[in-house]
Amino acid sequence: MILQTITFYLFAAITVAAGFMVIAARNPVHSVLYLILAFFTSAGLFVLIGAEFIAMILLIVYVGAVAVLFLFVVMMLDINFTDLRQGFLQYLPIGGLIGIVLLVELFMVLATWQFGPDVAAGAVPQATTGGLTNTEALGAVIYTDYAYAFQAAGIILLIAMIGAIVLTHRTRPGVKKQRISSQVHRDPKTTIEVKKIPPGQGI
Length: 203
Hints:
By secondary structure, this protein is mostly helical. It has helices spanning about 1-25, 30-50, 50-75, 80-85, 90-110, 115-120, 135-140, 145-170, 180-185, 190.
């Protein structure tokens, strides 16, 4: 129990620090790297409470896809961050007001926080009951009660991916592209030229 408690506070401190550095870092690439660190430590917290499936999904989906995509987009786009920071003072009062409201809400939540008797005793809550693992319980629910919603979510993600590809696809002049239909339907008379070279006059 002592080892689990130490691990929890270590992961929690790293997650909070990484989340703060995401918004405090001046370099956007560093912000994405801190975000990846926050995802890793959050996955460790999920493992501690027995939600290993959510931890693996967090690593595979967010770290393996979303965060890496953010990193490549930030590195490849030519963004002038000086122009983006020019309107900072204009939106500072509104941002400060929203920040104060969020701090008040967090204080209200923490003021009414109470530990359960099992948590106060140091027991680690179990994600599932009945001898099932977290992955088995989620699979049984997703593929039975929410099978159609799960398939619909996959279709929506596929449409979003196709839409993103179409929106970002640009035709640039001077770039050679392979056209399979043109290669298949080409005329041998226009693509092949036979020349008869007399003996001894070749290159």
